[in-house]
Amino acid sequence: MLPVGPQGFAAARPTPSELRNRSIITVDDLPPPADGRFHATIQAVPAGVLARSSWTKDCPVTAADLRYLTVSFRGFDGHAHTGELLANSRVADDLVTVFKRLFAAGFPIERMRISSTEELNAAPTGDGNTTEAFACRPVRGQTGWSQHAYGLAVDLDPFQNPYHKGEVVLPELATAYLDRADARPGMVRPAGPAVRAFAAIGWKWGGDYRSLKDYMHFSATGG
After folding, report:
1. N or C: fewer beta carbons within 10 Å in the chain?
2. Do strands 130-131 and 111-112 pair parallel, antiparallel, or not at all (unpaired)?
3. Side-chain-facing half-sphere of 151: CA atoms under 13 Å
């Protein structure tokens, strides 16, 4: 765990040598597709899934307006795996299309699962790399709701695609990935497959922000 400073963030740190070209093998949380092909499901959120998510009645979206998605993804091992997402019902079909395109392009993803409130509020390790959509939390460093809290945003491979504003880097150990000229697997690149896939459904990329860079972030509203 990293110590958190007075502004609520842990200090950025040099990336350990073994993570400068991060390609960790996926540990399956859900059974991988037996045929190695892309599959997806969309359904109302099961009670058990909702209970282990960060959703509460105080979130700005109702549970009835969320959907539980499973989608295949390609790991850094090149194999097919199954991930899960919570997303707003308005964008569920579009997100299946996005991840189908990423799968076809061979874009690698380390892990895709739903985070609990305890995980969102835990002390930082600087090492997180979970691809996810819904997270009931405010905008980083602010009090207003993030688009994640509405299920209208996706963070893709956060370690390879960190958030950067001033001295703040998230995840804190991902500083080696601030060098966007050093292309490595899992990095979101301008005009690359991830940007193209999300642009096709009208979503904006945080790598295009001017006041900060949020290379992991895609959202329906651009915020």
Report:
1. N
2. parallel
3. 27
In a domain, residue 17? The reply is no
Which regions of the chain are under pLDDT 50?
none
pLDDT for the residue numbered 222: 84
* Residue 80 included in any domain: yes
pLDDT in tens, 139-161: 877 778 999 999 999 999 999 99
Integer Rg of the chain from CA: 16
Q: Quote the domain boundaries for residue 143.
A: 32-219
Count of domains observed in the chain: 1
Please report the pLDDT score of residue 66 as a whole number.
98
Predicted local distance difference test score (pLDDT) of residue 140: 79
Task: Spell out where the chain has E strands.
Answer: 40-44, 66-74, 80-88, 111-112, 130-131, 153-155, 163-165, 168-170, 204-205, 213-214, 217-219
d(CA 172, CA 217): 16
Hunting for tokens 């009208």 — which residue is that? 202
pTM over 0.90: yes
pLDDT value of residue 143: 77
For residue 192, being part of any structural domain is answered with yes
Whether the CB-CB separation of 12 and 172 falls below 8 Å is answered with yes
Residue 26, domain member (yes or no): no
